[in-house]
Write a structure and sequence with these properties.
The complex is a heterotrimer of chains A (514), B (294) and C (357). Chain B has 11 helices and 4 strands; from the N terminus they run ααααβββααααβααα. With 294 residues, chain B is mainly α. Chain B starts with a helix and ends in a 15-residue tail after the last helix. Chain C has 357 residues and is mainly alpha-helical. Chain C has a domain of 241 residues.
Amino acid sequence: MDAGSGGAEGGDSRLHATDISVSFDGIQALRDVSIEIVRGQVLGLIGPNGAGKTTLVNVITGFQKVDAGKVAVDGRDITGTPPAARCVAGIARTFQAARLFDRLSVTENVELAALVTTSDRRAARDLAAELLDWVGLGSSGHLRADQLPHGDKRLAGVARALAASPRFLLMDEPAAGLNESEAQDLIEVIGRVRERFACGVLLIEHNVPLIMAVSDRVHVLSEGRSLFEGTPREVGGSAAVRHAYLGAGAVAAEAPASGSVPPAAAPAPRKPLLEVSALGVRYGTVEAVRNATIQVEEGECVAVVGPNGAGKSSLLHAIAGVVRPAAGTIRLNGAALARGSIESMVGQGVSLVPEGRHVFASLTVLENLQAGATRRTDAAAARRDVEALMDDFPALRERAAIPAGRLSGGEQQQLAIARALVAKPRLLLLDEPSLGLAPLVIDTVYDMLRRIHAAGMSILLVEQDAARALGFARRTYVLRSGSVVMAGASADLARDPGFEHAYFGFDGVEAAAS
Amino acid sequence: MSAVLQHVVDMVSVGGLYALMALGIGLIFGIMRLINFAHGELIMVGGYATWLVVDLPGVAVIVLTLAIVVLFAIGMERIAFRPLRDASPATLLVAAFAVSYFLQNLALVMFGGRPKPFTFADTLIEQVTIAGLRIPQLQVMSLVLTVLTLVGLAVILKRTNIGVQMRAAAQDFRMARLAGIRANRVIALAFLISGVLAWVVSVVYAAQIGQISPTMGLQPVIVGFVATVIGGLGSLSGAVIGGFLVGSLTVALQALLPGDLREFRDAFLFTGLLLVLLVRPSGIIATRALKERV
Amino acid sequence: MAGARSPGITAWWPALALVLLLVAITVLVGLASPSLQRVATEMLIRVVIVVGAYIFIGNSGVLSFGHVGFMAVGAYVTAWLTIPVAQKPFILPDLPQFLALTELPVFPASLAAGAAAALVALFFGIPLMRLSGIAASIGTFAMLVIIQSVFSHWDEMTGGASSLFGLPTYTTRWVALGWAIATIVAAFAYQHTRSGFRLRSSREDPVAAASFGVSITRERLVAFVISAFFVGIGGVLQAHFLGIVVADSFFLASTFLVIAMLVVGGIGSVSGAVIGVVVVTVLGEMLRRAEGGIDLGVVALPARPGLREVGLAAALLVILIFRPRGLMGGVEIPVPSILGRSLARRGARIPTSESGK
């Protein structure tokens, strides 16, 4: 049975996004990006966190205004039209977070999309039933959407998008949070979508084996720009692409990049400061972290690396007390961390520098630091520490009276780190400190971290820039799909050909693309 | 000329009062995303508290009434709003509405519907002559009080540790907690300050209208609310600016509108509010309070 | 697998149950005192108002503080059209000629009044429906104040702050019941339309809804206008129940009552709206008896007006804290198991989604 006008036409229908430039909140999210989705083909879209992938999808689906560039379907310009009109023009999408209509039934969810092409409720309902059958949810139609397990929600989202008889289907990280076998099922569904519905598919994914297995072509974004486009094999073989993902200096081939201090030979083991055992973290039905065991010794610097969606942030959040672990224990200095309010965690010696810096924009630099001193019991000592920090990092001293919102990205990162230090923590947690910063700026930030570490601070660092992390931390864990897949001295990992396998989940890009 | 000057003085004094009302609401909204409709009832509580203790010496009246209003403010947070800390903005709105209604009718039950006369500091009705203008002592007092309160608040927010914490919490509540700032303490303090602000307004406003009734808090809270939205929900300076703007606008409308249209002042005011909402929903000082991202 | 079965009888069960409930109350109260019958009539009028408000608030998820304004429109328009021509010069001496000389039969007048309310909703709705969340709620509140301010000062047309009297008091409990049933049926019917369906999807997730072709502004406007019609009718019924129209009665106290009834019953379903009305009315009646002073044996509580409102506000807060989805929890009256089993045997699908489909 045909899915409405999707049918078997195929033909050479194309969606063009040309010279797209977008900026918001002072950040250039996309710069002169052009992509083309051809009906009947799958275009993979990859790139590190913050590269602009979701922004591009938002542009195509009408949720983001462009500063420059246009979007056209079969030559017809649809730039500036509202999202509802884009759907009528033949564009449908699935969301990272599924975004089902929670209190409607699964069938109703799909039925709503079917109403885009038909006004007959009965026909819409029939189509919905058929599509749900096709994705394997035939018996779940009557359930409320929020009662579905996580993987099924994803499938329902796919069925819903297909019900709109799209000519172009945009899928935003459909495999996020799925385990290996669920991801396999998904690959299969996407393959069948392309055959049966003849729509063009744009697939954003971090699960590189999946992208490589399913895509006809792959487009790589990095820091808002198009880096590369080609077949999966070409992309896999490109040094530039691996650089974008793994950081300065392709890890498996070379020694750590120059400019970073090679980690010293491992000193005698000291007593453990942080012990995380069999940690599990869940958000609703999604298992973000599975059975993770991590250790940080007193005075040590440890990194956790892994692709996006690996669960690195969730791991940090569990340690910092932002989320309650579903399983496992966390001990600081031998004592289990008391699970109280978020603000009490700082009092126990754990200080988190969250992803995105989050400085208090309307407060001055000095006030930001003072805010960090809230938990200190000795006010005079806290003031001295603030002064000392500003002495150590003159950039902060110079800008002491300036509202933090006016600082550059790198300066804000330094301020966020300094603010966390004012609380005099035993353990400093950092969530992706290099995110959104230019390489030279990242150098400055890491210099600061080096000096703090040299002064004796224990650091647990989460990074997407693997090379940078390996060059900085003494030991590194590799996290993938929520589990620790590799661990050891950074110097060893950097030389280990198995590192890429652990990071990406397969044995070299070429193998997966063949 | 002196008529214009008189109007200017009016604008400043009314604007100042409205700024205080707006601050009481804006302060709470900034930290908790809650529009405290019940703020007007704090003003009413101040009024009735004064009526109850009016026979005591002046200082005692001031101390006692201030304490009672602050107690109600902190109490309403503890009892009604803390359990709803994580609820949706719509739920918080309804809850605030409910608290307001509760207190209004409680006053009705306890004191009856007939307004009571406000006699505290009756002598202030007399006028003084300043710079050729005849101004009631009351207006001078209220102006002084308003300025002192605003300055005092600014000092607390900018110069004290707890003030820094409050501003941090209003900026980014979750990050503030991550930095160790105690949510409960900051929120309780915000309500305490809003209680003080409400007390100042109650003294000035009750003296102006000369009486105390269960619904006396309605007009101030509506005004404060409009001022906060126009100035920008979530911004303290926005609340102050909004207050002065609305105050000046009110005086201007009163003076400029032809007689028969004067009664529709509220309609004009709220049409203005609607326009602001449509054209610039974040208010004049744009903050993130109302924005949503995909 | 064959095509999905259409909802059929099971979708209309909640409507049937609610209608039966109201009919039962109306019939039974005929055996009680006249004052209790008046309470029942008031309750049925409130059903019209609250279910009418639900048509917008429940389906869109936008909390409107302005619906009582539509009551005012309905009440004043019906006053203009039904106060006997002979009396108009005494009550509204400055009324324009064409109104002063008009006197319509009550039914056409009520329809005209409802239509007028719908027009006012269209007028305000076109700009307002673009707003979301708190901004929308604030906007509807602004609408309420504007309407109230206009009506209470537009002396020629409304008599200003004084009451308009002389309206024919035709609202018996049967009339109110009739309109209550009509409103309930309309609410369910609207939910089954494409527009209602799309609106509810936008309530769940506006981003996803927009991505799938839903024009959120338009669907909200449709619901807003339909909702205003019925709320306007509610105002009409109330005006012809009391025989007078007072500008002041269409402001905050009424708004609070409507919101309280919706929230207590549960914003998410028609059943919630109706149950909310019934529960709040009963609670209010019990408290009104207490207002007259009760003797608990150990202690005697003196008579105090305002006690009823205090109780209502306290009840609302308790519900918000402990059962925020309301008494019905956002679902319709479920099909009782005996009925369910016999229907299942005949192949019907028992609905589990909140819409009752």
